[in-house]
Each structure stands twice: as C-alpha cells, then as structure tokens.
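Protein modeling request. Please complete all fields; requests missing the sequence field cannot be processed.
Requester role: graduate student
Desired output: 3D structure, token encoding
Chains: 1
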Amino acid sequence: MQRATPPDKRRQALHAPWRRALAIVALLGLALGLRRRCARYEVLGDSMQPTLAPGDWLLAWQRPPPRCLRPGRLVVAGRPDAPTMEVIKRVAARQGDALVLRGDNPAASTDSRAFGPLAAAAVTGLVCLRYWPPHRARWLL
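Delivered output (141 residues):
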C-alpha cells in the first residue's frame, strides 16, 4: 500500500518551480542593477599590499555619496598628476571636502604624500568586494 502525499507537501511541490523562477528573476534584476552601479577593477601594483595583491579583482560602487568616504575605506580616485590613471587607496583622513589617501605599503605607494589631498569629487568609486581570486574573496566595506 502506498502512502498518500500530505497536502502541504503537494502544495510545496507545486509552488517550488515558481519560487525558483522568482529567485532567478530577482537575481537577474540585482545583477543588472549592480552592473549599472558597480565597476570592476584589477589591482596592478604593490602599493596596497597586504590588503590587495596584484591580480586581485574588485567591485566598486560608482560615484559614492561623500558621507561614505570615511577614514579606513578603500576608494578609487583619479590621479591628479596622471589624469588618465586611477588609483586604489585607503582614506587616511578627511579635511573638509578633501581626502588624504594612503597606500598600505608606503615604500611602493604614490599617494597623498606625493600629490597632496584630493577633492572628494575626484573619487570615482568605493571598493566593496574582492571577488578574485576565489580563496581571497571577501567584503571590503
């Protein structure tokens, strides 16, 4: 004799495909929203070691609000002495509307010690996630 499936189990089985479809649609919407709001960056130099190593890939929120630019945060900013380059540095201090940026490895870093404080408007991104390599992936906020 076979046992009948309880009504709750049948109801869950019927709704499971809809839940999966809804989850997939939600994830796709999130991915598209993040694509407009985030940018990917590859770390190329040693100036942020040991926090960031060459070959790390990061996600950064584009155009973060100034209130998010607090000391300790990692930011992407245009380099004043080389306008086509961007640097990833840590906010060391905030002086009104200007930010003092420092690299974690002073011997290998070109930062505010070389080019002075940067206007908060020069910050193009707030680093939020290291996603590659997988064994080093973590939130950086």
